Amino acid sequence: MKTLINDSIGDLEAALKNNTDLQEKFKTNPVEAMKEVEIRNPKDTDYWIYRIIVLMLGLAVITIIAGLILIAYWNDGESKNNQLVTIFATISSGAIGALAGLLSPTPRK
After folding, report:
1. Which contiguous run of DSSP H or E holds residue 37?
2. Banded model confidence at residue 83, pLDDT cuts 50, 70, 90
3. DSSP for residue 42
4. Whether 78 and 36 share a structural domain
5. What are the residues whose beta carbons fall under 8 Å from the beta carbon of 52, sequence distance 6 or more?
6. Transmembrane residues, as ranges (predicted)?
7. Are 16 and 54 found together in one domain?
8. d(Cα 57, Cα 73) in Å, to the nearest integer?
9. Residue 95, Cβ neighbours under 10 Å: how many?
């Protein structure tokens, strides 16, 4: 059975202190014992990270699009804020690209 640790040396030390079987394996063959240790990645177990990022990027895109609509409405067809519209459109397209990168499936090993 594999020993699960988080991504730190302190967690490996705690696992060694608490598990006598793992201690014996490290004394006899440390290389094989390290193969018995499985490192948990917080990105794999904590789904709130992705939920918060996707929510914030989505809100950014919606806010920027609403802002662009309001700027176009207040300008009445005049083009005095073209630079501001360009900056907002660039930020919005970057956020959409980030959302696409986060939500696309990753290839597995």
Report:
1. strand 37-39
2. confident
3. H
4. no
5. none
6. 48-72, 84-103
7. no
8. 24
9. 19
DSSP symbols for 2-30: PEEE-SSHHHHHHHHHH-HHHHHHHHH-H
**Treating both helix axes as pointing N-terminal to C-terminal, what angle do 82-103 and 48-75 enclose, rounded to 10 degrees?**
160
CA 109, 38, 3: angle at the middle one, nearest 5? Answer: 150
**Could you tell me if 53 and 95 are in contact, meaning their C-beta atoms sit under 8 angstroms apart?**
no
Q: Is 108 inside any structural domain?
A: no
State the distance between the two ends of the chain, measured CA to CA, in whole angstroms: 22
pLDDT at residue number 77: 60
Please indicate, yes or no, whether residues 59 and 97 belong to a single structural domain of this protein.
Answer: yes
pTM of the model: 0.53
- pLDDT of 79 reads 61
Q: Tell me if 109 is assigned to some domain.
A: no
Q: What range does the domain containing 80 cover? A: 47-103
Q: Clarify whether residues 78 and 51 are in a common domain.
A: yes
Number of domains composing the chain: 2
Contacts (Cβ under 8 Å, ≥6 apart) of 4 = 38, 40
